[in-house]
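Re: [ENG-882] Designed sequences occasionally contain unexpected residues at chain ends

Forwarding the minimal case from QA. Structure tokens:
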């Protein structure tokens, strides 16, 4: 568990540092010509992390309003995006909530099923647990961190 949380926290810090390294104006730069903008990745990551709350049984989502612009549609389809400062605050807030919950789980609880699998299916597929969610979301973080690394300031 310690190694998994370390990887999560390391990638989360790197992503936060990357976002913090851009001014609000620079957040509208594209990663590459014709590709996602940095603001889209910030909103997307905040929404995905927000989706982890009910998935892991930690309660209701905080930022469902982000889904239309950052989950349901690709970048540049929705013209009215939340302010960069609002997205930065949401990113920080949701990750703080997740950290609190992650730190409260016992090792046994990490191996419990997440909420998107039935009891019957979990018996057949016990690897579909809370630990697998944080591992997949850590990989998701690393993937988008790699995209941001391509941006030339």
């Amino acid at each position: 568990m310690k190694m998994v949380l370390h990887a999560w926290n390391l990638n989360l810090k790197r992503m936060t540092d990357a976002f913090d390294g851009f001014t609000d104006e620079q957040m509208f730069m594209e990663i590459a010509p014709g590709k996602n903008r940095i603001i889209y990745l910030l909103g997307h990551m905040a929404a995905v992390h927000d989706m982890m709350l009910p998935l892991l049984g930690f309660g209701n989502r905080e930022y469902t309003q982000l889904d239309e612009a950052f989950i349901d549609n690709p970048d540049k389809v929705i013209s009215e995006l939340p302010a960069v400062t609002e997205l930065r605050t949401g990113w920080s807030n949701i990750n703080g909530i997740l950290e609190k919950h992650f730190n409260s789980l016992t090792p046994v609880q990490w191996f419990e099923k997440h909420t998107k699998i039935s009891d019957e299916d979990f018996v057949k597929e016990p690897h579909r647990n809370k630990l697998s969610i944080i591992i997949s979301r850590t990989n998701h973080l690393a993937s988008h961190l790699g995209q941001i690394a391509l941006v030339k300031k």
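QA comment: On inspection the terminal residues look reasonable. The chain has one domain: 2-148. Proposing we downgrade this to a documentation issue.
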